Amino acid sequence: xxxxxxxxxxxxxxxxxxxxxxxxxxxxxxxxxxxxxxxxxxxxxxxxxxxxxxxxxxxxxxxxxxxxxxxxxxxxxxxxxxxxxxxxxxxxxxxxxxxxxxxxxxxxxxxxxxxxxxxxxxxxxxxxxxxxxxxxxxxxxxxxxxxxxxxxxxxxxxxxxxxxxxxxxxxxxxxxxxxxxxxxxxxxxxxxxxxxxxxxxxxxxxxxxxxxxxxxxxxxxxxxxxxxxxxxxxxxxxxxxxxxxxxxxxxxxxxxxxxxxxxxxxxxxxxxxxxxxxxxxxxxxxxxxxxxxxxxxxxxxxxxxxxxxxxxxxxxxxxxxxxxxxxxxxxxxx
Length: 334
Ligand code: NAD
Ligand code: UDP
Description:
By secondary structure, the chain is α/β, with parallel strands linked by helices. It folds into two domains: 2-172 and 223-251, 3-Layer(aba) Sandwich (Rossmann fold); 190-221 and 254-322, Alpha-Beta Complex (UDP-galactose 4-epimerase, domain 1), CATH 3.90.25.10. 38% of the residues lie in helices and 17% in strands. It is built from ten helices and 13 strands. A seven-stranded parallel beta sheet has the order 3-2-1-4-5-6-11, with helices on both faces. Helix 1 (11-22) links the parallel strand 1 and strand 2. Helix 1 (11-22) packs across helix 7 (226-241), helix 4 (86-106) runs parallel beside helix 5 (140-159) and helix 8 (259-270) crosses helix 10 (309-322). The radius of gyration is 19 Å and the shape is globular. The two termini are 38 Å apart. 49% of the residues are buried. Uridine-5'-diphosphate binds at residues 79, 170, 188-190, 193, 205-208, 219, 221, 259, 282, 285.
């Protein structure tokens, strides 16, 4: 039986597909390549190009594949864009989930592992953030993902579709052999932007705000390596296969690094000066986001291997150095 990975050509999806195949799973991928890359998909996975919201297309995939469980990464995830274009996010993310659950229900597939996010919590009342804390998103992206969690809950109640919502904190790094990595256009995440400066593609980094109530005034975030994240999805699948109830888990390291600390770590790893300047705050940035991740460790048996932010950055730098143009599949690159 197959595991169907929606959004498997994206950054986190492609690492998870790769990991599933390494562990002997039979994998099919659905992706419309809106932000993903065909070359990122392990060639042992069957690939279907199309949109999750297209129920005729999606039903066709479920007809062809003997789907045991679904891992759902397919979504838009750029916070500032979601502030400007909220309907785009509710359409792709939230409606995409409705379309997927309808097709799953029609095909009697009752297991889904879902990419949720720390953005569903909004501005935390206390640190570290626990799964039971209030979820009050401060942007449409987080709201679209919270709605997806709620839609899965009611589909469980009505149709018995069991879910695991994995609430990722800050994801970074790449497969250590450098064969796959992060390639977003435009790039908005801190670590790949810093490495673009290190590689000479950007003149300097702008740090968004140094007047927060943190150790050095810059935001503090909790970084998790993409392969540790991939492993958590496989553990979540096993959890559902074992017949457990639907649940949500934070995925983070439970350690916070300030933006200045990440910059210093990247300078150490790359040996490059990486010029940086201070800029104004970015709208919607919470001061500190650190996960309580003991639940995933205890219940799923999650045991992250990358506990050092230098090691995480090292793998991202290896990908950057070996793939200066990423997957090199943008129009105009060729
Ligand atoms: P990504 O953009 O690299 O991957 C998303 C993939 O989904 C892409 O390959 C894209 O082409 C595909 N896709 C999007 N809409 C689709 C649709 N309607 N039909 C078919 N395919 C579609 O993003 P990522 O960084 O790998 O993130 C994956 C998931 O993890 C997202 O759902 C995101 O919300 C969530 N997440 C990411 C982070 C992070 O730090 N990167 C943090 C928290 C949560
Ligand atoms: N950040 C920054 N400069 C950049 C990009 C990001 O200072 O060019 C900061 C951002 O304000 C936040 C942290 O880096 O404090 C992590 O941002 P990212 O977008 O990577 O992830 P987020 O925490 O928003 O999910």
